[in-house]
Fold each of these.
Amino acid sequence: MGTAGSGKSTLALSLFERLQTAEVDSAILNLDPGVQWLPYSPDVDIRDYINYGRLVEEYKLGPNGGLVASVDAAVSHIGEMKEELEKLDPEYVIVDTPGQMELFAYRNSGMFIASSLAENNFSTIFLADSIFLNKPSDFVSILLLSYSVNVRFKAPQINCVSKVDLLPKDVYDRGVLWSSDPEMLKEAFLGESVDLKTEISERMLEALTDVGALGEFIFTSSNTGEGLDDLYAQLQRIHTSSEDR
Ligand SMILES: Nc1nc2c(ncn2[C@@H]2O[C@H](COP(=O)(O)OP(=O)(O)O)[C@@H](O)[C@H]2O)c(=O)[nH]1
Ligand SMILES: [Mg+2]
């Protein structure tokens, strides 16, 4: 999950390749009904079941209305998608969600699809685009978004910063500090603007820290492969049951 263009589809491929290197069998499920081009070839594809263009024509919908209708309509094909996945029988299914995250994250059908397909054995990966490291308030806003996804999906969540290859070294280093040291972030955030309601902001940041929203952020790049080992290690930690170890 992540804002539009945060690098979800690209990371789906990088993670798939990382798992391949570890000889772990995985499959990619594309849940973006409106996507024209993908960096990978999906093993299971919502577009085989839902015709976005036809829904838009038939019901005279705008682009967003069409996407909403498509994701809602996909609910009635969960059984078929699940059957396809069961035939492949991979260890991991990487699910690529629609470009605009609200279609999936903030509609009941998205959550229903995820939990039905995975029988609740799933985790969410949240991508914070590296552009959110420009200002402390940008980073705080993406923390809130990440936490709101976590509140909705109630699943183990791995937070990543994406596209870190684009960051100048000073912004990268500052980002590492903000995402690992709540005090550093608080200081930067409160120092950014006198307009912010200081005391409430401070309490909000403390609350985010208390609920673990700050926690660990893996700095990833699909271009250089940075962070993919960590991401895979986190997935193993979450999904390897004690019997398998
Ligand atoms: N420099 C850089 N660009 C990336 C990276 N990951 C994705 N992109 C680019 O960001 C754009 C959006 O990526 P995409 O995966 O389609 O985002 P999505 O909408 O979240 O699925 C594309 O032009 C990608 O090539 C990365 O790690 N580094
Ligand atoms: Mg995408």
Amino acid sequence: MSIHYEIVSDNDIACIKDLCNELMSYQKSKALIHPEWFDNMSFETRLIPSVESAKANFIIAAKDENEIIGYAYSNISLKNTYSGGFATLKPVDFFDFDSVKGNDVGCLSQFYIKEGYRNAGIGSVLFEKSMEWLNSFKSINDLFIFVSNGNDNALNFYQGKGFQVSHQLLDGFITVLRNA
Ligand SMILES: CC(C)(COP(=O)(O)OP(=O)(O)OC[C@H]1O[C@@H](n2cnc3c(N)ncnc32)[C@H](O)[C@@H]1OP(=O)(O)O)[C@@H](O)C(=O)NCCC(=O)NCCS
């Protein structure tokens, strides 16, 4: 295994399409609450709209030789983006907007390492590189990670990296984590 890391440009996101769809299936397989909500979630409905609506995007990929075996996607967006419907018609604010000082927030939005490459430190490298990028926006203090229900492994991973559980959304479908 010879892992290296490469930034994926916004124009080149198709190269992570399959992994993004694997992430959606993985999250569905873990979910106990509304797993069917993942049925409409895909590269086309989640990643592309997010990249297009964000103010800035950062996608870092881990490669084993020429194969992309993992990626982390982070963005900077207007906090108001995190309002409205999500997989359901029920409108929801993802967090208390008054608890965020500025207009923008950072988010580690998607994170996936292929099975067989997990627990080898690759995710930690992608996480650190993503945090470096997010923290380079000096005016942005509020960072979020949204974890779907049943994914306790990811929840523990982020908590081990210093993020804290803030609250749950949509009857526990999502757990919201914030930077400390
Ligand atoms: C969550 C995920 C991205 C983490 O990536 P990873 O590459 O497995 O993460 P790491 O290997 O860096 O860390 C995992 C554990 O291995 C340990 N570890 C770190 N470096 C290691 C190394 N060199 N060798 C062995 N173990 C190591 C870490 O301490 C960590 O343990 P902890 O969670 O108890 O702190 C990955 O498991 C994954 O893709 N899961 C499926 C999809 C998913 O859940 N995505 C998140 C959606 S919110």
